[in-house]
Structure formats: C-alpha cells, structure tokens
Amino acid sequence: MRKYGNWDKVKAAAEFEQLPPGGYVCRIMGAEVKEYERKDHSGSFEKLRVSLDIAEGRYKDFYANDYRAQNTEDKRWRGVLELYLPDENGANAEQEERTASYLKAAIEAIEESNSGYRWDWDERKLKGKIVGCLFRSKEWEYEGRGGWRTEALRFIEADRIRQGKFKVPAAKPLKKTSDSVNTAPMTTPENVEIIADDDLPF
Predict the structure, then answer these.
(1) What number is the average pLDDT over the span 5-27?
(2) Would the pLDDT of 187 be above 70?
(3) Is the pLDDT of residue 165 over 70?
C-alpha cells in the first residue's frame, strides 16, 4: 500500500453522536428569506430560513461544535428550520392559509419566549432570540446511500421545553420502495475542538 501524499496534514475524522430527537431551548443565530425554484420550473417560492443552536442543557452549542468539526471546504450550518411563506398568488387559497397558519404559530412561539418582543416583519431582528424547538428523526436517501438525521420540525414556547410540556415528534421514515436503502443512522459530531467564534458563519 502506497503512502498517501498528504497523510501528515490530514485531520482525523471526529467521533460522532446524533442529536437525540426531542425538545430543546434554542437560540436563533440568524434568519433570512430565501427564494427557491419549483421542481417543475413553473416559478419560484420563498422560505424563511432560521438558523438555530441549542441554548441550554447537555447539548448546548451542539451545532456550533458540529460546524467547527467539519473539515471540508463546503462547511454548512446544520441546525436549520425552514418555514414556507405564503405565495399570495390566489392559486390555492387553502394551502396559502395553512402556510400562513404555520408561520404565525412559529412567530407567536418566538414572541412568547422573548418578553417584550413583537414581530415587525424584519427577519433580521430574530437573531439572538430564544425559542423552543421540537426535533424529529427523518430518514434520508441520496445516490444509493441513506440513513437517519435529526431535523428541526417546529417552534414552541421555550418554557414548555423547560417544563417538559411537549411530546417528542414521531420519526419520519422514507416511503418504502423495492430499491430503498437499509442503513444505520447518520451521526453528528459532538467531541470537537473548540475554536474562536470568529469561525462561525454568523
């Protein structure tokens, strides 16, 4: 076996631990409205993309530690909750109302978790706010590989998390097909080197 040319400079992969599904008190690290193209190329739609980290408890700073542990050029922040924004194009009034209802529930959870804060349609002001968030396990598959990951599902009042007044969301498996992949859960880093906050993307 020949020696890999850059062996002495390669960082060994960190040990990984999955964030358990459940409820966590989170801090909003940033928020932005992002536009996406529809799969059928019939137009675009918008989402409010909210980046989070765990603010309290055993898993505090989980996503910051995960980000710091990534040693590839395409590092990304994995603690994200995306909320669809209503189209208001009149094409599907029922869907628009449902989308608006989910958004309002999320905003009210943030307001209830931060005394004196009131939503004023400036998503940039969400940075630094505290909110409760429920996380679930979701199965994924891509190019023949697959596994499970923990994803942010919805916001609730932070005190409900602190008081244990929530239910852990059910896991979401893939719809089974004849060629579905059977794999072990994908994991997320916990034991990482802590470095300066200047390296974070916020």
Answers:
(1) 78
(2) no
(3) yes
Interior angle at CA 78, CA 73 and CA 84, nearest 5: 120
**In the sheet that 44-54 helps form, which strands lie side by side, from edge to edge?**
80-84, 44-54, 22-37, 130-142, 145-156
Q: Once rounded to an integer, what is the mean pLDDT over residues 16-27?
A: 90
What does the DSSP 8-state code read for residue 83?
Answer: E
* Token pair listed for 126: 């969400």
Which pLDDT band holds residue 10 (cuts at 50, 70, 90)? low
Complete DSSP assignment for 126-157: GTT-EEEEEEEEEEEEETTEEEEEEEEEEEE-
CA separation for the pair 88, 27 (Å, rounded): 30
CA–CA dist 152, 124 (Å, integer): 20
How far apart, in whole angstroms, are the C-alpha atoms of residue 15 and residue 24?
22
CA distance 167 to 161: 10
CB 33 within 8 Å of CB 84: no
Identify whether the C-beta of residue 49 lies closer than 8 Å to the C-beta of residue 76. Answer: no
**Which residue in the block uniquely carries the two structure tokens 């208001």?**
88
Question: Are residues 160 and 195 in contact, defined by beta-carbon separation less than 8 angstroms?
Answer: no
Between CA 10 and CA 12 the distance in angstroms is 6
CA distance 126 to 143: 36
